[in-house]
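User: I'm curious whether this sequence folds into something compact or stays loose and floppy. Could you predict its structure so I can see for myself?
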Amino acid sequence: MRNQEVVAMPGGVPADAPMSAYDKQALETFRKYDTDNSGDIDATELRSALDDMGASRDVNVAALLKKYDSDTNHSFDVVEFTKILKQVQVSGGAGLTARAAQI
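Assistant: Here's the prediction. I'll summarize afterward.
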């Protein structure tokens, strides 16, 4: 059984939603790169996060925006951001959230 904790999250996630260690790390990463504290990460903030975490420059932020911006506001909430991290990891960026914690 995974260790889970209740943490309030932006982006429409219920405050009582249990979080895995991965999700907690993704939330910390999100907060770090949401430099204007808007509750969303724009394309520039996402590019900065991906660069700092060692993701390939081949990762196309515009394509990620098109695929994961479910509310079409041209930015990513924490739920959308977590999906992006998981996709980038599957595509060869393993350990991105772990690297973000070291930055």
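Summary: The chain has a mean pLDDT of 75. The two ends are 29 Å apart (CA to CA).
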